[in-house]
Amino acid sequence: MKVGVCSWSLCPSGPEDLVEKVRATGLDAIQLALDPLRLDWGGSHAFDALEAAGIEVLSGMMMMEGEDYSTFETIRITGGVRPDQTWPGNIRAAEENARIAAEAGIELITFHAGFIPHGATDPQRTKMLGRLRQLTAVFQDAGCRVALETGQESAETLVEVLLELDQPSIGVNFDPANMILYGMGDPIVSLDLLAPYIAQLHVKDALPSDQPGQWGSEEPAGAGAVDWQAFFEVLDRHQLDRDLIIEREAGDQRIDDVIRARELLSVHLGGANG
Length: 274
Hints:
The chain is of the alpha/beta class. The chain is 44% helix and 16% strand. The strands form two sheets. Strands 1-2-3-4-5-6-7-10 form an eight-stranded parallel barrel. The protein has a two-stranded antiparallel sheet with strand order 8-9.
């Protein structure tokens, strides 16, 4: 069980800036957003900078084209593999991201599938599961497993989807805050249900909205509604030793908030901090 930070949480302008900001957090491991490497950062140069700094890449992340998180409704329409208009671009991006990951030896890639319908016979669900199989095959051919980010559907629906997909190389990237932000159920109950499928864990906190269909608010770790003591009790009970990746996507004190999360983890992990 290693502790890292999401590269995108630090809003880096390039590989050298990422190295500087990771060092400032006191960590030496990251989950790396692959799309900046594919589009702007020159691929292998970024890995050279990270390796020289002694920063380990624990996993990669792919963001789907055209995702709009402005409101619940916009992300429901634009998120993940659901939109037809962005699917051709997303499968091409996945192929390039898989090549980058394979060259760097990254073995786990996470992404949002999108809002998977609850109904098993919904044609949108059938379409989305077909596309998830295609994406998984692309990454699997490059030696990578994939993990679906939690939050945009209930844990019960996600378990049904995983059973229907029936592919060992597909797991879950569990984010307790997303369950709260999307109003998709208690994160501890969800963690317990999804435990057999979890490949990685995000460390993020949030407070629920008092308005159905509205976003909750992301908060620094320990300041939200996630019961971290119960969180780690579930991990212990299931003997889950998956990597813990700190994610912070709100606020203007990202490095300070990552340090706060690292210190919270240190308490629960008996002093480990990286």
